[in-house]
Amino acid sequence: MSRIYRGGLLGILFGVICDIVLSIADLFLRELWALARIPFEIIGAIFQMYASIDAMRTNLDILSSVLSIYHNFSSGLSFPENILQSISPLGTLVWIGFWGIVFWYIGIPALGVLFSILTDPR
């Protein structure tokens, strides 16, 4: 019991009843507070969903830019590829180095964005 009452059995009974009423009131207020927070939780979830969609859209914009750059490189440079490969083995090494640089600066960021889109738990 949280309080000590004098008066024998009636005081003890009053103390027990008072503790029960206070416990029920405390439980009621906690449940009421939980119910009052529900709309705010829903609004917060909506804002979080909007931020998640915006982040995903940004990642998709980055991926489309990277793919556009790659398309510009690959479509415009098919003719030099034939020339470089026909010159000598050195031309082939230069071409492999060029595509290595393209992959390093374009492919790896594209894979990073794709990986972040696929593994996003939201």
> Could you tell me the strand content as a percent range?
under 5%
- Helicity range of the residues? over 70%
Tally of extended strands? 0
Mean pLDDT: 77
| Element pattern in H and E | HHH
Please identify the structural class as seen in this structure: mainly alpha
- Tally of helical runs: 3
**Mass-distribution shape:** rod-shaped
How far apart the termini lie comes to 48 Å
Largest sheet: none
Q: Point out poorly predicted stretches.
A: none
Rg over CA atoms, rounded to whole Å, is 34 Å
Summary of the model, kept short:
The protein is mainly alpha-helical and 122 residues long.
What are the defining features of this structure?
122 residues; mainly alpha; 3 helices; 89% helix; rod-shaped
Overview of the molecule:
The two termini are 48 Å apart. The chain has helices spanning 9-76, 78-87, 89-118. Helices cover 89% and strands 0% of the residues. The chain contains three helices and no strands. The chain is mainly α and 122 residues long. Helix 1 (9-76) runs antiparallel to helix 3 (89-118). The longest helix is centred in the middle third of the chain and has 68 residues, at 9-76. It is rod-shaped, with a radius of gyration of 34 Å.
